[in-house]
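Hi R.,

Here's the chain you asked about this morning:
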Amino acid sequence: MVMANPERAAALGVRLLARAERGRDRPGMSTSLRILGLAARELQDPALAAIRLRRSIAVARDHPRLAAESRMSLALVLNDLGRPRAALREIDQALLVLEGLPLARARMQHGILLRRLGRDTEALEAYGAALASFRRHDDRLWQARALTNRGVLQAYRGMLTQAKVDLERAEELYRGQSLTVAVAQVQHNLGFVAAQGGDIVTALTWYDRADEQFRQSGRRPAEALIDRAELLLAARLLPEAHQAARDAVELAGSTRLGSLLPQARLLLAQAALAAGDTAEARQSARLARRAFERQQRERWVVHARYLESVAMARPSPRLLRTLATALDAAGWPEQALDARLRAAATGDADALAELAAVSVARGPVRLRIRAWHAQALYRLHRGDRAGARRALLAGLRLLDQYRAALGATELRVLSSAEGGELARLGVRLALVERSGRQVLGWAERWRAATLRLPAGRGQDDPALARELAELRRVSAELAGYSSDAIRRARPLQRQRVLEDSIRRRTWRTRTTGGVVETPGSVDEIVGGLGGRALVELVEQDGQLLGVVAVDGRILLRPLVAATAVAAELAALRFAMRRLVLRYGSAASLAAAEAAARHGVRQLDEWLLGPLSRLVGDRDLVVVPTGALQALPWSALPSCRGRSVAVAPSATAWARSAAGGGVTDDRTVLVAAARPEHALGEVRALAALAPAARVLAGPDATVRATLAAIDGARLVHLAAHGEFRADNPLFSHLDLADGPLTVHDLTGLHRAPDLVVLSACDTGLSAVHPGDELMGLTAALLGAGTRTLVASIGPVDDDATRALMLELHDRLRQGADPAAALAAAQVAAPVEHWATAHSFSCFGAGAA
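And the predicted structure, written out as tokens:
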């Protein structure tokens, strides 16, 4: 009952204790107090549990067996409180007294304490001996407990198959006894096994399943928070990992779980270090180390000491090498490799030599990716450049497989950071040889790789569909309370809850299988250009480089410091925003106009000026990097009137340009009720295209729109748009019944060929390492849309309507989308300059 319903067990224990006290029944008092102690432990109050169990031992002084059983329970509680040595003393006393089945139970508890102290081999022996006894006695509850503990230990030791077998049998035994919380704990541990193997999707699925039961019971263990935080950290969901680690520290501290508190602090140090907060990382690691030292948990001391060291300013290579050896001996292979790579990054010859022993064949995928980086550094140290390149390519191929298995766009995008060092080293090798061809090849090997992966599945999840529909309803409710802060509070909270749930649900998306496309070869990219010129921008060590492919040649040119460009671009976007929204006085708007004109001239001089003789007057394919994804390229003087296609990667552009598009010849025009120009804009377009399917006003619902645009040749959507910098996958267009989000677009069976988004900010994307993009643009291009016209800022309604009519007129005359947009921008009145050039042509740019 203590496991199934600790509250009820405690209430019963109180009544039994009162009865025993009235009858001066010391055995009854001891047993009742043990029940109360175990119930308190289950309810996460180890301090109260210890008080009750000590009293149970005291009243059983004339009953050695009862006292020994209570000592056995007290040992676990003392372990929870972070006093493993005191716990061992109690269990040792119990082992001297007990026999038969109680002795087997004590041995199993002894194994738990041995594991906590890092004595894994002894712990496995204790579990095995106890399990044999439980089977002989057909004690199914304690069989399940022993199997659970042994399974977790095997997972820590990398014996994942054996761990899974033990845990699945434990789950079966607990189910047979209707112990739902225990089942949830085993399911969580199955997630831990998957996490140890690097299977993030399976781990999240198990964790979420267990958490649902924990929430219903009101008893979420601190271990569950710690394990989830560790998994989120591995998935590079850094804000979520940081918060989960903080929650774990708070829970372990408030419940006085002294054994788990330093582990939670250690994880918080890791999360803080990943986020760049070295001060918090150092403090958390120091507190964890001191606690582990007091508890004599040497294996964990080594890990904490390492984190404390790397959070300092530049630990010496010698210290890092020493720590790496200690981490290996203590069973922390990932941290040991990290220490060696940090030491090697300083150029230390001894550290580079040690990388020869790093194995690329063992461990989870993330560890093997980093091992290939280590091998590349070692081979380069030995002067073997060809071998270094082979190692880098092997690591990046492994990263492709890892990303593809994730399924969810967000996880794929974030995981690209795992290949950063590999790709940068590849570009560095190419730069040493001054080879533009090789720089282009290495840049493409890593850039926007998520677009090359097979699609994930999850769009048929009915629970996800329900939550997206509910999100639209709540968003519509919020729109009705736009000026009432009090009435907005509750739907805002509901919106946050729904968005969080939708995100978590999509993380469990699995891949549909299919082939992981390789990056385009340089010959494939160059061969697809025809008379165009490719300008691909690469940032290396803070410097922007321009790779130009033209007439079969590939040339490399240094450009400008990336920081200078970022500052100038931010000023330009600010000025253009003011011009569109008409903020300020006439004088301030004139100043904004001057600032914007200066900004485009300066950026043009820095980015395209050094390349002008190479590209001539050819049509351009531009592959930006970093913040330049949000540059209004058509506004640059060199691009005036020129066809410019902006692509996430040269590979994506080449394959889109070579694609035949869809066979469906439908045109779909969609207009939301707001902004005011939308309906008039679409009606004007419909008058010129009488065969077009029109959805306007109340008919322009999300469901109707998705059904209509699926597989269409040309889609035009006029609506309010919003880019969500805080959560790019909830970037959206406002339709009749609420937002059409990136998540909704994953339900398309065939993406439309050409999409025009007549709305604000729809071309913006969040940019992650590897120039991985998240937003409406990336979602449509990733789904298969060949060309997209969208804005990278706010736009004026009247100016947009005029631009769109001109754009479609050019399209009807047979111009390619990029050329049509360029011509429409040139034709725009000067007062519409900022709005006209806020639009860019993304993707192939061709019909």
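The longest strand covers residues 553-561.

Let me know if you need anything else.
M.
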